[in-house]
Structures are given as C-alpha cells and as structure tokens.
Amino acid sequence: MTILEKITAYKLKEVAAKRETIPTRLLEKFPLFAKETKSLAEALRISTTGIIAEHKRRSPSKSVINDKVLLHEVVSGYELAGAKGISVLTDSNFFGGSLDDLLLAEKTVSIPILRKEFIVDPYQIYEAKAFGADTILLIAACLSAEELKQFSHLAKSLRLDVLLEVHNLEELQKSLLPNVDMIGVNNRNLKNFKVNIETSKKLSAEIPHDFVKISESGISDVETIKDLRTYGFEGFLIGENFMKTENPGETAKAFIEKLR
Ligand SMILES: O=P(O)(O)OC[C@@H](O)[C@@H](O)c1c[nH]c2ccccc12
C-alpha cells in the first residue's frame, strides 16, 4: 500500500466518524459558513511575487519539521512578509494539523486561506467552508474524474476557489475542468516523496492559460522561482523551507524581499 492509499483509507474512516458528530446541515449553520470568501486565484494573478506560505508541523516524509512555533505567530509573520495566501494543513494524523489551526489562521490574517487536506468526500468541503477556508485543494491522484467534477462544482457553489493538484500528464488530463481555478503541479511524488522541480517545467506547456499555474513543494531558493516564472507559473507553494527555521515569518520575509 502506498502512503497515499493509506492516507485516503484513513480519511474515509475519519469522515464517516465526523459526520456522525456534526452532520452537514449543522456545518451549514456555523457563522463562518456565511463568510464572504476571498479569491486566491485573483490575488495570485495580480501579484508580482506569488508566494503561498504553508503552516506544516510535520509530514510523513520528514516527521517533525517544527512543533515549537505558534500558529498565529507563523501566519501573521507570513502575512507581514507579503505572502499572497496561507496554506494550513488540517490533517492531524500525518501532518499534526487541525481544523482549529484553520480557525485560528482565519482569525489572524486577512489574506486568502487554503485548507490543505486530502479531500475524499464532499463533507470535507462543507467543513472547509464552515471553518473559514477560502480555497480547497483537490488531489487528482486521490479522486476519480467524476469525483473531481462533482467536488469542484460543489466548492464553486459554496464560493470556494479550487486548487487542483497534479503530478503527471494523465492526472492533468482529467483535471482540466470548468470549476477549477488553479492547477498546482506537485514536484513531490506522493508515492515515494521524491522531489523534482522538472515536474513543473515538463507539465507547464500542457496547462491551458485560463488556469493559474502553481508550482508546489521542494522550493527553497528564489532562483528556482525566477526560472519557473519563465514557464508561466504565478504561484509558488512553500512549506518546509520556511517552517524548518526558528522564525518562519522572518525567513519568508527575507525570501520574498529577494523576489521583488
Ligand atoms: O514543504 P514543501 O516541500 O515546501 O511543500 C509544501 C506543499 O507543497 C506540500 O506540503 C504539499 C503539496 N501537496 C500536498 C498534499 C497534501 C499534503 C501536503 C502537500
């Protein structure tokens, strides 16, 4: 079983249990459900830097990245640094995150927030909205073409932006859907965790211009970003490179300054 299969199986069970505690119709009554969302895609289109900074305590590939810093300090630091969006891991079992992290991030910053989660059920899209997300992630490797279509449609009907993550051409081909705002190329292979920036470059030409192109994972220097821009990328998702330092906000600030 690959790690991705393990995570999806776990998620399906997790969702079934959660639905028992808080049914969807209750999620719809959460105050944040009525919040006006902010578009990450729009923010990236008009940005000259395009950094989406991620809060990530740990990961299956690297175990602990940073469990000492406080979420509100990290995300407010990111916002001050000039990030155009914040990504918050909400999975607890593999990444040490939670929906409380999402809530707290929503309270702390005013830039768009991405719920970083392995979405396998529409319930998690309602949950994202109820806990303050502006954007959701859909991972092509976890979902069928039909699910991608249904889930992206649901997200848009809730006024959430959709970032669809792909890792190869086959996944990309099933992802070019009308309700998708952004296509993210994950440079990390979720099956073996190997990172290769060439993945973004190779797939870039196959992504139509109406999608905002985002390069995800393994980005640790500004030169890489300058290079990726020539391939049409407008968004860059960075986690570990910031989170592994003592002060992720300060690290992001120095990084973004070099991009201006
Ligand atoms: O920490 P990195 O290498 O900068 O990567 C960030 C982000 O791209 C990565 O966390 C990620 C990309 N896709 C995901 C899907 C689920 C969980 C995590 C991810």
TrEMBL record:
Keywords: Amino-acid biosynthesis, Aromatic amino acid biosynthesis, Decarboxylase, Lyase, Tryptophan biosynthesis. It catalyses: 1-(2-carboxyphenylamino)-1-deoxy-D-ribulose 5-phosphate + H(+) = (1S,2R)-1-C-(indol-3-yl)glycerol 3-phosphate + CO2 + H2O. The keyword Lyase applies. Its EC number is 4.1.1.48. The keyword Lyase applies. GO terms for molecular function: indole-3-glycerol-phosphate synthase activity; phosphoribosylanthranilate isomerase activity. GO terms for biological process: L-tryptophan biosynthetic process. Residues 4-253 form the Indole-3-glycerol phosphate synthase domain. Pathway: Amino-acid biosynthesis; L-tryptophan biosynthesis; L-tryptophan from chorismate: step 4/5. InterPro entries: Aldolase_TIM, Indole-3-glycerol_P_synth, Indole-3-glycerol_P_synth_dom, RibuloseP-bd_barrel. Gene3D superfamilies: Aldolase class I (3.20.20.70). Belongs to the TrpC family. This is Indole-3-glycerol phosphate synthase. It comes from Aequorivita sublithincola (strain DSM 14238 / LMG 21431 / ACAM 643 / 9-3). The gene is trpC.
